[in-house]
Amino acid sequence: MAFDGITIACMAHELHEKLTGARISKIAQPEPDELLLTIKSREGNYRLLLSASASLPLVYLTEKNKPGPLTAPNFCMLLRKHISGGRILSVTQPSLERILRFEIEHLDEMGDTCKKYLIVEIMGKHSNIIFCNEQNQIIDSVKHVSAQMSSVREVLPGREYFIPDTQEKANPLEITESLFVELVGGKAAKLSKALYTSLTGLSPVAAEEICARTSLDSDRPAGSFQPEELTHLYRTFVRFLEPVQSGAYTPVIYYDEKTPVEFSCIPLTLYEHCRKETFPSVSEVLERYYAEKNTLTRIRQKSTDLRRIVQTALERNVKKYDLQAKQLKDTEKREKYRVWGELINTYGYGVEPGSKSFEALNYYTGATIQIPLDPQIPVQENAKKYFDKYGKLKRTCEAVTKLLEETGAEIEHLRSIQTALDIALQEEDLVQIKEELMEAGYIRKRTPGSKRPKITSRPFHYLSSDGYHMYVGKNNLQNDELTFQTAKGSDWWFHAKGAPGSHVIVQTNGDELPDRTFEEAAKLAAYYSSNRGADKVEIDYVERKHVKKPNGSKPGFVVYYTNYSMMINSDISGIQLL
């Protein structure tokens, strides 16, 4: 779920419980739009991150420290002057708005007790951190917003602070059934959009979830529903918000295999098919979710150039393969020319000179065929002409067949590199892939004497439910090393049949493997292949001693002639990664 009003309500509840009565000991501003507060309480110290970043505004407790600049920015210095050492009285959320309000008590210059408010607005590109006095006047803010920048509200020192009501949304925690039916049912937009545009704090995901729980079509226009259907929607909506009223949150992240797809503070039926991981606090959810998302995004960005190189080479080779296949198909008529030549030599003695064709019995098939002739040359010369065509097409067939095999192997190799790029989870995983592309000639090789990067990437290491160690190669170079250097002859080797993917090795230690370990290793081979996500993937498995690598073959390419096969899904959620 987006960082919406429900998530912020959960965060407000968490921060109020942990920080009420605690004192602010340090204030840092690591980024121009970010604060890091160190807060001391009886239970221990906390670090509170407040970010008004336009791309990713966040608020959460973290254990990680971030160094600030040598010279503190003016806003940071102002906060240190006013609230350093101050005590947090409360953390609240007005209505279900995407706003957190920290009420802070401190001593002024005269030693008198006074209050200040630190307000964090989580509103996308309009996010801000605003510091106000007890009279609700703005003292300063991380971002200044002038009248030229916004006609709705100025955010400048001396201005009064207020929450702009530009969209005329209702408070979900106070709305009555009649007003709900009137607001939602009066919109022409689809039902889910009518929900989140009528009520504060609801994200599109939350709106879709409410519709799903009500079993109403979220894509139907809201105005097309009957009053009793909207009443049913309202009651489901009220039940959906019960955790917000009671504070009984369930912070959770939903995963598609190992990729985080959504987080929420309320269980979502929309993602029942996904693996979920529950956390004790929403801060841990946010930190984990965005850290994993950022890692995947960073890897995608880092691998963009490599993906482009591989995709370009793949497209070029696919076109080459199609042309070669067409050339090979054109050589299929070569046998016809050989037969014609033989029949002319056998029966051509009776054909009159200048004939354009003649009929002959094809002694291979027993059928009579019409053989075209060139009347400008002697009949026997026609036979030589057809034998020459046959010879040329035969040589072409042999050459193109070899080229077609080479191009097919290159396509298979490039597709395996694409799969390796999809598997890569860390930047060091890309180093070996780049080395492989250099060896294949797709990237310019290093100049002599240049330092080769240190290889730190290692195969995935899993432990089966029966205690056997299973290893998964992340790329073709690792596959070769794992299969032919790490594995012993009695170990078992697994690979997705007819698809690019990783080699999976199970160390047997001389034991006979249980069926469950075979199935788990097969699941790993299915997951780390181009068939990831399929309900059924065919997996070949064989003892490692039966796997061979042909001389001169591409990295990761192997052959085997005796093997077992099984059909398996690619769900590895229950397998332990070490």
Topology:
Elements: H1 5-19, E1 23-31, E2 34-41, E3 44-51, E4 58-62, H2 74-83, E5 87-92, E6 99-107, E7 113-121, E8 128-132, E9 138-141, H3 177-185, H4 191-198, H5 204-214, H6 227-240, H7 242-246, E10 252-256, E11 259-264, E12 275-278, H8 282-302, H9 304-330, H10 334-347, E13 357-362, E14 367-372, H11 379-423, H12 427-440, E15 460-463, E16 469-472, H13 476-486, E17 492-496, E18 504-506, H14 515-527, E19 537-543, E20 564-568, E21 576-577
Antiparallel strand pairs: 1-2, 2-3, 3-4, 5-6, 6-7, 7-8, 8-9, 10-11, 10-12, 13-14, 15-16, 15-21, 16-18, 17-18, 17-19, 19-20
Helix pairs in contact: 3-4, 3-6, 4-5, 5-6, 9-11, 10-11
Q: What distinguishing features does this structure have?
A:
five-stranded antiparallel sheet; 14 helices; elongated; alpha+beta; 578 residues
Q: What does the model show?
A:
Helices cover 38% and strands 21% of the residues. A hairpin with a 6-residue loop joins β5 and β6. The mean pLDDT is 84. The protein has 578 residues and is α+β, with helices and mostly antiparallel strands. The protein contains 14 helices and 21 strands. The strands form five sheets. It has a seven-stranded antiparallel beta sheet with strand order 20-19-17-18-16-15-21, with helices on both faces. Strands 5-6-7-8-9 form a five-stranded antiparallel beta sheet. α3 crosses α4, α3 packs across α6 and α5 crosses α6.
